[in-house]
């Protein structure tokens, strides 16, 4: 990976980080689409509740991503040479994959292996306790 590419990764990660934490970098014009300006008061409640549900489930999914974004940024800073390598097998990750997911940690192959259930402890059903 070239310095320019690493730089691009850093920009992508910083933008993602800003998006996920809600802290938009000062340079970027913030979106003025929230509360104060949006909408009248008619029929707003149900929609708001729905939006909140969506937002909170999205946040839950995003938590893991944020952690990985932070980790990737740390790696870029502390160990830039290893950035862009699969943490499992050490293969260089395709740049296209990194551009889509700059926080990605594994190559497609290793990710696939990790996603497969390993036959860990089975989840207890509620009925087991009755
Ligand atoms: Zn790998």
Indicate the structural class. Answer: mainly alpha
Radius of gyration: 20 Å
Bound molecules: zinc ion
CATH A-level architecture of the domain at 1-26 and 54-115: Up-down Bundle
| Number of separate strands | 0
Q: Which percent band covers the strand fraction?
A: under 5%
Q: In whole angstroms, how far apart are the ends?
A: 57 Å
**Helix count from the secondary structure assignment:** 4
Residue-averaged pLDDT: 80
Biggest sheet layout: none
Low-confidence segments: none
InterPro entries: Znf_C4-type_bac, Znf_DskA_TraR
Pfam families: zf-dskA_traR
Organism: Hyalangium minutum
Zinc finger (dksA C4-type): 86-110
Record the SSE blueprint.
Layout lengths: L2 H19 L22 H35 L16 H6 L7 H8 L15
Helix pairs in contact: 1-2
Pfam families: zf-dskA_traR
InterPro entries: Znf_C4-type_bac, Znf_DskA_TraR
Keywords: Metal-binding, Zinc, Zinc-finger
Based on the model shown, name its key terms:
130 residues; 52% helix; metal-binding; single chain; Four Helix Bundle (Hemerythrin (Met), subunit A); Znf_C4-type_bac; mainly alpha; Znf_DskA_TraR; binds zinc ion
Structure description:
Residues 82-115 form the Zinc finger DksA/TraR C4-type domain. This is C4-type zinc finger protein, DksA/TraR family protein. Pfam families: zf-dskA_traR. GO terms for molecular function: zinc ion binding. By secondary structure, this protein is mostly helical. The chain has a domain at 1-26 and 54-115: DksA, coiled-coil domain (Four Helix Bundle (Hemerythrin (Met), subunit A), Up-down Bundle), CATH 1.20.120. The protein is built from 4 helices and no strands. The protein has helices at 3-21, 44-78, 95-100, 108-115. The longest helix has 35 residues, at 44-78. It is flat, with a radius of gyration of 20 Å. The N and C termini lie far apart (57 Å). The relative contact order is 0.13. The mean pLDDT is 80. Zinc ion (ZN) is lined by residues 86, 88-89, 91, 106-107, 109-110. Zinc ion is lined by residues 86, 88-89, 91, 106-107, 109-110.
